[in-house]
Amino acid sequence: MSDVQETRSDAILSVCGEQLQALSEAAIYWPTRDMLIVADLHFEKGSAYAARGVHLPPYDTSATLFRLETLVARLKPTKVIALGDSFHDGEAKLRIAPGDAARIRNLTSATEWTWITGNHDPSPDGFGGTIVPELRVGALTFRHEPEPAPATGEIAGHLHPCAVVRVRGRRLRRRCFASDSTRAILPAFGAYTGGLNVCDPAYAGLFAGHAFHAWMIGRDQVVPVAAKRLLGD
Q: pLDDT tens-digit profile of 186-198?
């Protein structure tokens, strides 16, 4: 894989001149703003499936919260942005365990927390923090759903990007960040969230005219892979 540059977990992803740390925890840290950015937490996805008769272990919210709490404890950010679909649906607040709800409120009270609204959670109220449809900070605009190119400075989620490459004769599929240095799409952070291959037509037009990299997430590192090396499903 001569075209693949292995990096540490705090790989630097440049967007419109801003240096962002792409973390192996599937989040971004913006050091100059002391800001943590996560996408698509999908709290209570398990209970939503259970309500429809699809029974999954009911621990996804707790597991996602544990990973988020651990990351916040490590980085100690003063600001957190959740890029929409933080809750799986509008009824999640009615199904969530009181203890998990308290853990969310502890996080939002300890930081300057912003919820970006998503298509699954148009109004994630009742858990503290500020709710907005999008937020602009310096050169960057934070929103849930990516807009067609050019969307200069956009940091978004929604698509749950993942990538596939061939390594030593076998196919390797991993969550990834997708970026062409003018915008970035974050992988989903939630425990029960799947991934949509960046070669899927849903990404057509998002990186029009620009070469992009899929920053694939390994166990403890993030590896940028050029678009020409990526495989479809």
A: 999 998 888 999 9
Question: What burial letters (b/e) apply to 62-87, b meaning 16+ CB within 10 Å?
Answer: bebbebbeebbeebebeebbbbbbbb
Q: What count of residues does the chain have?
A: 233
Nearest residue to 161 via CA among 145, 150, 149, 148: 145
pLDDT at 44: 85
Prediction pTM value = 0.91
| Type of residue at 169 | G
Residues in a beta bridge with 172 = 165
List domains and CATH numbers for the chain. Answer: 11-229 (3.60.21)
66 vs 29, 71, 78, 112, 138, CA distance in Å? 18, 9, 19, 19, 30
- Percentage above 70 pLDDT, the chain: 91
pLDDT for 220 equals: 84
Bridge partners of residue 155, in order along the sequence: 142, 184
Q: What is the mean predicted confidence (pLDDT) over 93-100?
A: 90
Question: Which DSSP string do the residues of 138-203 spell out, in sequence order?
Answer: TTEEEESSPPSSP-TTEEE-SS-EEEEEEETTEEEEEEEEEE-SS-EEPPP-STT---EETTSGGG
